[in-house]
Amino acid sequence: MSTRDEQGLYIHHTTVRFGGLLALDDVSLRVPPGRVVGIIGPNGAGKTTLFNVICGFVVPQAGAITLDGRPLRPRPDHLYRHGIARTLQGVGQFGGMTVLENVQVGQRRRARPEEAYAALERCGVAEHAGEYPGSLPYAKRKRVELARALVARPRILLLDEPAGGLDAAEIGWLAELIRSARTTVLLVEHHMDLVMSVCDEILVLDFGKPIALGTPGEIRSDPKVAEAYLGAPA
Amino acid sequence: MTILQDATKTKDHQKSPPKSTPLLLVIAGAIIVVALTYVLPPFRNYQLATIGAYFCVTAGLTVLTGLNGQLSLGHGALMATGAYTLALWQNKFDLLLPGIALAVLVTTVVGGIIGLAAARLRGPYLAGLTLAVAVVVPSITSTFDKTFNSDQGLSVALDPPPGVIPVEQWQAWLCWAGALLTVLVLAYLVRGRFGRDLRAVRDDETAAKLAGVGVARTQVMAFVVSAACAGLAGALFAVLAQSVSPGAFPLTLSLFLLMAIVIGGLGRLTGALIGAVLLVALPSVAQSIAEDAGSQHLEGNLALTFFGVVLVLVMLAAPGGLAALKFPRRSRRQKG
Q1: Least CA distance to B16: which residue of chain A?
Q2: Which H or E run contains B244?
């Protein structure tokens, strides 16, 4: 049985190299249950690579991942067994299937249409259930992808730039969804207002190296973060 | 508003026609086929039987290529596997139904092996692999000529049909029993999770993996299911021709099968049926024209030309194939 300190997702001293490029350099992060943790940094900082390590798309040269104290050897198609769901940077949808079927693909244990409708309803796109995602505006397609991730009732939700291409109203809706998700959320995002408003803790990466970890207030006032990513206040 | 009420509202909003049950369609199909066999002359019954045999393989191929996105140029060779298995079995044991079952089983195993390799390949490399299968399998008959009797092939020992049923009518029943069983199994398979997984892998492999779909497993399963259908078709062709030879399963057969499902409508069982009809009708039309023109050379090439022309015309008029064609509905007369 895992102790309270071991609960949740723990990334231990993870290093990833792509040939001569050091994508992640000794990154450690603890994500306790129910917390919303943001990962920010400039493009190429290693944020998505860290997600890919958690999902098993990338095998690290060093380091380990534990879930509730147990070693996690992730495989992308087995993530649901560990209660992990992820959205992609793009919309990652199945164009030849209806919106409802897109969500049903995410139902691995039971494929009850009512639950898929419930997920669509929660994301505000239930009225498009019978349509094809290609006929929907970008923001609604993003909502469909979120519904597919949520339908599996994940313990840990990995959101990779979910606010990309959304307007202010949509980002407000997304913030509300994350706050009310009642699940652990790992958020990679460039939209700082969203990150600062929903995250309990933020990890800042720069060229694969962790340069800061703290609450939104601490990150905002960290000079290293300002220099590498946020910029000096005007 | 409850979820179910919302679901109803969405369904009402779509105004889609209710989905027909595959079992009812298959029963209706069986009644039509049996009725047709009593009114058609023997040669037409033979053609009807051939359509049924082709329908087995086109239905399986459209699941593989249309729903799962895997291109196969080797289904002619899988048919040959089924046909030779049945011929060898019949010549030893003369038990037709177990022989057909064995032909399906052997082809399923072969398809599984090809599928394991195919799941690691994409696009032109996958086409290349299946093309190699189409070339290699017939040449095996020459390598092991004592078993397969080289280019002469094997005759298939068959008992006469039961009672006083004409051979062609019995062949039509047998082939369509196989075809309708194939369609029934495939229709139920693709309606559920397996069908969704097939299409998810076709549309976006990364997103499918993240949704929990075993991409390689799904691709291998698609190949296995499709190979089983091809094996059944091969066995039925062996029954129809009462002989098997490598010349009956050339590379052009695999190309014809692929063209047929594209013209009919990829990923649709109705498209596979249209493709099967074309596979029988176009060579027949070509033969008639060649006979009228008095040229035997023309006959061999005209069918391929016909297929090419029909493919171009259909793709221009209906990119989704003939099964995707939508005809404008006649407006209802208003009452009063």
Answers
A1: A130
A2: strand B243-244
